C-alpha cells in the first residue's frame, strides 16, 4: 500500500510540474534592446520606456502588453501615439497589420 501511495504522490507531482508553461515562451518584453538601425529601446518593468536615437535624442513613454488568441505582443508609445510600435517575436513593426502578417519587421537584439 505504501508503494502505491508513493507512486500516486510522484505521479501527482510529475503531472503538475509538467503543466507549468515554458518561461522562455512567455514573451518577456521588458529589457534593453537595439534595432538593426541602431535605435535603443529600454522597456522597464513599470511599463515605462526610454527610446534613444543615434543622434542623442531620446523619448520617454509607456508600453503595454496585449494578448490575442494566437499570441502576445507589446505596444510602445512614441510621440503621444500609444500604438506607434508593435513588438512581437523579437521583431519591431510600425503597424498592427505588418505585425499580423509578419511583414516589414525589423529584427531586434536584447542586450541583457
Automatic annotation (TrEMBL):
This is Lipocalin-like domain-containing protein.
Amino acid at each position: 500500500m505504501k508503494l502505491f501511495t508513493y507512486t500516486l504522490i510522484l505521479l501527482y507531482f510529475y503531472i503538475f510540474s509538467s503543466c507549468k508553461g515554458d518561461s522562455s515562451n512567455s514573451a518577456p518584453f521588458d529589457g534593453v534592446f537595439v534595432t538593426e538601425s541602431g535605435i535603443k529601446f529600454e522597456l522597464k518593468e513599470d511599463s515605462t520606456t526610454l527610446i534613444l536615437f543615434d543622434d542623442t535624442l531620446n523619448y520617454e513613454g509607456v508600453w503595454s502588453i496585449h494578448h490575442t488568441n494566437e499570441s502576445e505582443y507589446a505596444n510602445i508609445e512614441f510621440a503621444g501615439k500609444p500604438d506607434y510600435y508593435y513588438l512581437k517575436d523579437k521583431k519591431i513593426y510600425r503597424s498592427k497589420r505588418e505585425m499580423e502578417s509578419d511583414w516589414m519587421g525589423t529584427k531586434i537584439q536584447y542586450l541583457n
